[in-house]
Automatic annotation (TrEMBL):
Role: Secretory protein that plays a role in various cellular processes. Acts as a chemorepellent acting on gonadotropin-releasing hormone (GnRH) expressing neurons regulating their migration to the hypothalamus. Also promotes neuron migration, growth and survival as well as neurite outgrowth and is involved in the development of the olfactory system. May also act through the regulation of growth factors activity and downstream signaling. Also regulates extracellular matrix assembly and cell adhesiveness.
UniProt xrefs under PANTHER family: NEURON-DERIVED NEUROTROPHIC FACTOR, PROTEIN NDNF
Subcellular location per the Swiss-Prot or TrEMBL entry: Secreted
GO cellular component, as recorded: extracellular region
Keyword Cell division: no
InterPro entries recorded: FN3_dom, FN3_sf, Ig-like_fold, NDNF, NDNF_C, NDNF_Fn(III)_1, NDNF_N
Protein name (Swiss-Prot/TrEMBL): Protein NDNF
GO biological process: nervous system development
Family annotation (Pfam families): NDNF, NDNF_C, NDNF_N
Length: 556
């Protein structure tokens, strides 16, 4: 807009103020004065920039007006205006004012005031109006003799919008283009996954390096623009990275945010009061499977096509889907005195359920942790009676009523698989598991080590039991794997016969003296050995002591 051209049309704007009094509503004297004050600052603050996206902040019930006029020299010039509400619905309209064909005579000012006002009013027309929160674009042809007024109003609360005016419709678009069919299709639904696909944007084919798709997943509703989604997340009390466009530059995240970057995908998970809000950018792929969802939960999915160079975006038509309901977990019946070996999948983090109906008032539950980390939760007739992380061999003695129903739920607390043995029995039932010493550690005596032998010791109990010792030659880089993968419930049947050293029986009624030692001979100098001791109870169920690694002396 040229300066000289602008001041030429300024009187027409003053006339427009009078026209608006008739076409919109009759303002008070104070509002007239305020409107004239705005017009006096028109060139500096109320002219809408051409070719630039403008952010406008609106106060509740206070209209905001912007003016624009296209450059001289073109009788008809195409232009477009795109308005993006970033929160609540707004009202906005475009009014066009055309200059009269002739000029009024100065001497006739007093006598023709009424006729001038009526004539000017006939030159003001509303060419577009809209109320809502969708992204709307108006395209029209502008005459060089016309000025335009844009008026925006929010009646719900303070908000902000973005407005993009352009008169250059040939050199490309600020916003990426949507396909003819902008819908998102749901092509697969699972218990924890939803697979989506959408048609490619024409912009992807033309500007593949600077365009990418970004997906937003939430449990509340769909969003009609990326700025509306960002505003909603911020209003929940969180800070959000500037935009998801999320050039893949790293952002400093808040404590409620988790960023995951894998396989060229940037995922940001926001913890909000209404559930998780996930943002995923997947480049130019137009099919995506959303993982790690909750079963039987409705999710809303929005896809945005984002220009990485300008941060401008366009929204596909959002969709929603409900994940499948989790099937009822299978419940295994526990029988009196029977030992059940349970293997738990650490990746799925699911509960394994066991049910036991009491035929006696006093019940014993025994758990032997074999591998990994396991959490146990026991309920009686639906009420919790025990819940803790297991360690070693654990006994629970519970007292209830006849025919009480106990539900035992087991879950691995780490990603690797875990396993545990479980037994339920009446209080008078002979235990299948052996009586354990205070510690299952194996001790070695450094001073008694030689190049060919090692002396170890371990604790016993007050009842006579069988103990078997095994040895295994290992390398330095095998120590961690051997110790981590040890199954505390496995018996000697899994060992090679050549690894067996001896078996012996012993006990002592005095727990302080229930200690035994053994010297293992025939070893090689400077060599690492893994030693294991197995304890067998009356029923033959083995309990494995913690493995011990000892190295023989290199020189003697």
């Amino acid at each position: 807009l040229k300066m000289s051209w602008f001041w030429l049309y300024l009187p027409l704007h003053l006339l427009m103020a009078t026209c608006l009094c008739h076409s919109i509503k009759a303002p008070t004297t104070s509002s007239q004065q305020s409107f004239k004050t705005d017009l006096s600052n028109l060139y500096h603050s109320l002219v809408l920039a051409d070719g630039k996206e403008t952010t406008i902040h609106l106060l509740k019930d206070i209209p905001k007006r912007y003016y624009f006029a296209l450059e001289e020299g073109r009788v008809l010039a195409p232009f477009s205006i795109t308005v993006t509400p970033c929160d609540v619905p707004i009202e906005w309209s475009i009014l066009m004012y055309k200059s009269p064909p002739g000029k009024a005579t100065p001497g006739d000012h007093d006598t023709q005031e009424v006729s001038k006002s009526q004539k000017a009013s006939s030159l003001v027309s509303t060419i577009f109006s809209y109320k809502g929160n969708s992204v709307e674009t108006y395209m029209g042809m502008s005459s060089h003799s016309a000025l335009y007024l844009l008026e925006f109003l929010s009646t719900e609360r303070d908000t902000h919008i973005t407005v993009y005016l352009t008169s250059d419709t040939t050199s490309g678009h600020l916003y990426p283009e949507l396909p003819m069919d902008p819908r998102i299709d749901v092509i697969g639904i699972g218990h924890t996954t939803v697979t989506l696909t959408w048609k490619h944007s024409p912009s992807v084919l033309q500007h593949r390096d600077s365009i990418q798709y970004c997906l937003l997943v939430n449990e509340k509703h769909n969003y009609k623009s990326l700025c509306a989604a960002e505003t909603a997340i911020r209003s929940s009390g969180m800070k959000l990275p500037p935009t998801l466009a999320l050039s893949l530059s790293p952002y400093l995240l808040e404590s409620q945010q988790v960023m995951i970057l894998s396989n060229s995908e940037l995922s940001i998970i926001n913890k909000v009061s209404s559930g998780e809000v996930r943002q995923v950018c997947m480049g130019t792929r137009n099919t995506y499977t959303v993982p790690n969802l909750s079963p039987n939960t409705q999710y809303y999915f929005d896809v945005f096509i984002v220009n990485l160079l300008t941060n401008a975006s366009a929204a596909y038509t959002g969709t929603f889907a409900r994940t499948l309901e989790e099937p009822e977990p299978k419940v295994t019946e526990l029988k009196d005195g029977k030992v059940v070996h349970v293997v738990l999948d650490g990746k799925k983090q699911k509960f394994y359920s066991l049910q036991y109906q009491a035929r006696h008032k006093k019940i014993h539950f025994t758990f032997q942790l074999c591998q990994g980390q396991v959490r146990v939760h026991i309920t009686r007739n639906g009420k919790t009676v025990a819940s803790e992380n297991l360690s070693g061999l654990r006994y629970f003695s519970l007292k209830g009523k006849l025919l009480d129903t106990y539900l035992v739920q087991l879950r691995s607390t780490e990603e690797s698989n875990s396993s545990v043995k479980v037994q339920a029995s009446p209080h008078f039932h002979k235990p299948s598991f052996p009586l354990l010493p205070e510690s299952l550690k194996i001790k070695s005596f450094s001073k008694l080590r030689t190049c060919r032998s090692v002396t170890i010791a371990w604790l016993g109990t007050q009842e006579e039991s069988k103990y078997c010792v095994y040895r295994k030659r290992i390398e330095e880089d095998q120590i961690w794997r051997e110790l981590q993968s040890a199954d505390m419930c496995s018996g000697p049947e899994s060992r090679h016969k050549s690894e067996k050293v001896l078996c012996k029986y012993f006990y002592d009624l005095n727990p302080q003296r229930a200690v035994t030692t053994e010297t293992i001979k025939g070893l090689e100098a400077g060599t690492l050995y893994l030693f294991d001791v197995y304890l067998f109870g009356p029923s033959g169920i083995p309990v494995r002591y913690h493995s011990k690694v000892v190295k023989t002396r290199k020189k003697c």
